[in-house]
Amino acid sequence: MKNITTLLIMVALTAQIALGAIPTEKDNRYVAQVIGKDVYIRSGNGMNFYRCGKISEPTPVVVVAEKNGWSMIEPPKGSFSWISMRYVDKDPSDPAIGIVKGDNVRVWTGSPYVPPLHSQSMQVKLNTGDRVKFLTADGSRDEGGYYCIEPPKNAYLWINSTYLKKLGPLSMFTPSKDEPKNAKLISIVDKKPAASVATKTPVNTQNPKTVVVPEKKTEVKAPLSEETTSIAKVAQLTELINKERKKPLLSQNFDSIKAELKKIIDNKKAGKASRFAQFRMSEVKRYETAKLAAIETAKQDQELKNKIKKIKIDLEKTLVNMPKTSDYTIEGYLFTSSVYSGKTSQTRYLIKNNAGRIVAYATPVGNLKNKNLSNLLGKRVGLTGTQSADPLTPLVLVKFDKISLIK
Q: Which architecture does CATH list for 330-405?
């Protein structure tokens, strides 16, 4: 039962391992497990290459090479390629097979998001006599003069290495030359490749009733590398960063995340995970700089509000305690205001002292609200009314209903 379960779990992997993919001494391929949901596979090693599909954990993939933080992988199940119909004849004996008629015939990376005519990522070149496999016998996926085919040998795709967890060399998951196919397939869903070892007790030839009793199987587990576990940790921290960014700016806190990133950066065994962690750390520092700027701005705004409030309170006290020196609320020379006029707001006048300094603003109310006072401009007058702190300026605002010319 255990062998059957193991075999079923590895169906996704066996689709990527051809019969001829027996590991050699120079075979550097390894098996990795996808970590993440709906991770894009692309036609090349960068974000500028077009998407070719999505893949989610815990799907296994075979990594062929690495470049600039991207991993070249054997096409997973569901991948496809394009080839021009002009250079392929169908095999008369098998309509599902095509035979190439021409040299250096290009095979293009297939994508459900990009039509074949616009596919610009070449995977391999085929020559006369090479065989390709059509993915649909009825041609339902063929398009624009191109056959939809199964990716041929040496046709690869790419995935961001951040979303992969290395499990072990390909040889750990493929049979040796002396073993039957699938004999050493190891379950990778548990993320810990293991090889079963079984021994048998010798048979007593003198006693025909004696049977061979298999001993209890033991598992040999291969630990994950420091680099693999660190990459997975960076992926988890990235999710925490994104979650923290959704909070209000002033309530964001990245202290614990920075501490974990620093551990990975300082770990000499973390490999390329250290570079990923440094990039995330620089992101976090930018977010914290924005938070500090917001805190400082809020602090300055509050200080300004407090100062304005204090000025108004002090002015009110001054007005209340100011001794009355005449029968008028205020005396001075009457002038029009070029800032506050009847065209833009309630009419205001300037009251200046003998030195020509503005001491107050004044606005007529009651019976004087719409009265023409131009005959009093530039003359010394006495205003009777109420005074209060002006919300628009630091000066006194006098609302007067009586005005008298002082001679």
A: Beta Barrel (2.40)
pTM: 0.42
Q: How far apart are CA 69 and CA 279, in angstroms?
A: 12
Mean pLDDT computed over every residue of the chain? 81
Strands of 337-379 (E only): list them: 349-352, 358-364
What residues contact residue 167 under an 8 Å CB cut-off, 6+ apart? 30, 31, 32, 33, 60, 173, 188, 191, 193, 224, 228
Dump strand ranges (E) for 29-104: 30-34, 39-42, 51-55, 60-67, 70-73, 81-84, 88-91, 94-100
What DSSP character marks residue 303? H
Helix axes 272-321, 255-266, angle to 10 degrees: 150
Q: What are phi and psi of 202, to 5 degrees?
A: -65, 150
> CA–CA separation, 395 vs 391, rounded Å?
9
**How many angstroms separate the Cα of 72 from the Cα of each of 64, 215, 271, 331?**
5, 42, 18, 88
**Spatial distance between the Cα atoms of 65 and 34, rounded to a whole number of angstroms:** 16
From the list 53, 32, 44, the residue with the least C-alpha distance to 72 is 44
Residue 228 burial (10 A CB sphere; 0-12, 13-18, 19+): buried
User: pLDDT tens across 150-200, in order?
Assistant: 999 999 999 999 999 998 888 777 655 554 444 443 444 444 444 444 444
Instruction: Assess contact for 147 and 155: CB atoms under 8 A.
Output: no
Amino acid 164 reads L
Closest by CA to 257, choosing from 270, 273, 244, is 244
Residue 124 bridge partners (DSSP): 107
Token digits for 210?
Answer: 């004696």
Interval 74-119: pLDDT, tens: 999 999 999 999 999 999 899 899 999 999 999 999 999 999 988 8
Exposure of 287 by Cβ count < 10 A (0-12 exposed, 13-18 middle, 19+ buried)? middle
Q: Judging by DSSP bridges, how do beta strands 380-389 and 330-336 pair with one another? A: antiparallel
pLDDT at 27: 79
CATH number for region 1-74+156-197+217-222: 2.30.30.40
> What does the domain layout of the chain look like in residue ranges?
1-74+156-197+217-222, 76-152, 226-296, 330-405
